[in-house]
Structures are given as C-alpha cells and as structure tokens.
Design a protein that fits this description.
The structure is a single chain. With about 300 residues, this protein is an alpha/beta fold. It has three domains: about 10-90, Arc Repressor Mutant, subunit A; about 95-160 and about 265-300, 3-Layer(aba) Sandwich (D-Maltodextrin-Binding Protein, domain 2); about 165-260, Periplasmic binding protein-like II (D-Maltodextrin-Binding Protein, domain 2, 3-Layer(aba) Sandwich), CATH 3.40.190. The chain is built from twelve helices and eleven strands. It has helices spanning about 10-20, 25-30, 35-50, 65-90, 100-110, 115-120, 170-175, 195-210, 225-230, 245-250, 280-295, 300, and strands spanning about 55, 60, 95-100, 125-130, 145-150, 155-160, 165-170, 190-195, 215-220, 235-240, 270-275. Helix 1 (about 10-20) crosses helix 2 (about 25-30) and helix 1 (about 10-20) packs across helix 3 (about 35-50).
Length: about 300
C-alpha cells in the first residue's frame, strides 16, 4: 500500500526549524528564504490539521504535538542518514562463479577458502560442482578447475597443479589383503569413478606391466565416493596424491606401493577460463590459487 507522507521539503523545513527553534536559522541551514520555511511549515500544519509551532514576536516554540512529531521525523532522518553513510562506505562487491569437481572442492579448495575470504572480502565466490566442463564461454561460470590432461577446445587452460597416481586403500583392507607387488591386486576390487579412474588405472597398470583384466571393477559416480569407499575398506582406489595428502599423512589411507607412483604427462588440475583478459576478481583468485599451490599442506602449516 502506498505510504501517505507529507512532501519531503515540508518535513525538511519542519525538522530544521524545530531542532533550531528558529525559522531564520533553519532558512540559513537549508539555503532558502525565511518566508519559504514559513510557507513549508504552514503547508505541513494545514495538511496535518495540527498546529506545530507557537509563533512569538522574536522566537518560536514547539507545541506538544509539534515536539512529538519532531521526535519521529528526526529519528527517521537519522536512520536515512545512517543508511546512506553505510551504503557509501560499503565496497562494491564482485561475484566470481567457479565450476569445479566436488572432490577438488572437498579435499583441497574449501579448507583453504577462509584465507581467500580474509584477503579479498570484496569478492563473493560461488562454487558450482559438476563433473562436466561448464560452458564458461557462455557465462555459466567465469572459470573452472578441471582434472585431466588438458586439450579442451575453445578455452584457455593452464596446469595449476600436477598430480601423481598411486593405489591406496585402508589399513584394515591391507591387513586382510597383503600387497607386496602389483600382481597381488589380481582378484581384488578396484574402485573406479566414471569420470577419470579408467584412464588413471590403465595408465598406472601399463607402467607396471600389470593386466587389469585380472581384477574386479567397482564403478562409482565420482571421486569423492571412490575415496570414501577406500576409507571404508571396500577396495583399492587409484590415489591422487595431492588431493588426498591429508588422508595419507594421518594414515587413514595407505599406499601399498609407495615407490611405484606415476606422474602421467600433463595430468593434474587445470585452470580453465574463456579466452581473453580476466577481470579483477578472476585475476585476484588466480593469483591466490597459485600461491596456495606452492604452500605446504594444510596440517604442515598448523
């Protein structure tokens, strides 16, 4: 419903005259004539059908109704002024949309985000998790972080963090199934994610001269589920060492063949952006990401 309020000019004149108890001083403050102040106040009194001032020869006084109304108007003006000042002080906020794999978000990025927020409080980061490469050229996201070997058409991609691959499992699984050499994986369940594990397992097995046909494949939706299944002792996963560094450090996951890690050419986490120059928010996030990649692991910094 539309608010019924007197014109702002009449309220402005009333507030100044009531606060200063002088039409002439109010006129000087508002940069208008004294007769204009008197006109505005008469117009307001007529509109309200209420006398607001007692006019004397050399001074004015507020009526009880005028004093009560002044308190309301002064409070409203104070709130408007305060809100205006807050708005002027507030920095312009930028929104940065980032598409990434949920596994990278969970195990690597999110634990580090408080540092980015502390450094760049003016940037609101929006994370979209997906196993598909978002159409960043059409604005679905401003940048993406993807795992693979690069080579995506129509975008600019740079390797953010190289990855090493090595089979991992829980200590309980290893106790039940001693693994001394790759051939000991024969007959055991290997945990795959639909997105990348087939490539990873094939690359690692080929490097070891091991035939995957002798194993049993367990296909899972994404790498987060693969890691969880390995933690639960359900099989052997191909471990991405940079991503699961904390699990390896505390021993919740172990490497049966630590000296057989493989670093496939160009395999790792890639920063994918549309071609062309980056805006200030994107450039700030990229610079911060590259700093974080070079830092020790989270727990080494504690």
């Amino acid at each position: 419903m539309r608010r019924r309020v007197p014109p702002l000019a009449t309220l402005n004149a009333f507030e100044a005259a009531g606060r200063l108890l002088s039409f002439s001083r109010a006129a000087a403050e508002l940069l208008i004539t004294q007769s204009a102040v008197s006109h505005h106040i008469r117009k307001l009194e007529t509109s309200l059908e209420t006398r607001l001032f007692i006019r004397r020869t050399r001074a004015v006084e507020l009526t009880p109704a005028g004093a009560a109304y002044l308190a309301v108007i002064a409070d409203a003006f104070d709130r408007i002024a305060e809100g205006t000042q807050r708005l002027r002080r507030a920095p312009e906020r930028a929104v940065l949309k980032l598409s990434l794999l949920s596994s990278f978000a969970t195990h690597w990025l999110i634990p580090r985000l408080p540092r980015f927020a502390a450094r760049h409080p003016e940037i609101d980061l929006q994370l979209e998790t997906s196993i598909a490469l978002s159409d960043i050229t059409q604005g679905a996201a401003q940048m993406a972080i993807r795992y693979g070997q690069g080579g995506w058409p129509g975008v600019s991609a740079s390797l953010l963090m190289a990855e090493r691959l090595s089979p991992v499992c829980s200590q309980a699984f290893l106790a039940r199934h001693p693994l001394a050499r790759p051939s000991d994986l024969g007959g055991l369940p290997l945990l795959y994610s639909y997105s990348r594990s087939p490539f990873e397992w094939r690359a690692w097995a080929a490097a070891q001269g091991f035939d995957l046909a002798a194993t049993r494949a367990v296909m899972l939706h994404d790498y987060n589920i693969v890691v969880q299944a390995a933690l639960d002792g359900q099989g052997v996963a191909i471990g991405r060492e940079r991503l699961i560094a904390d699990s390896l450090r505390i021993g919740s996951l172990v490497q049966p063949f630590p000296d057989r890690a493989l670093a496939p050419p160009n395999a790792g986490y890639w920063l994918v952006t549309p071609p062309g120059a980056k805006d200030a928010a994107a450039a700030a996030f990229i610079a911060w990401l590259r700093e974080e990649v070079d830092l020790p692991s989270m727990h080494e910094q504690d």
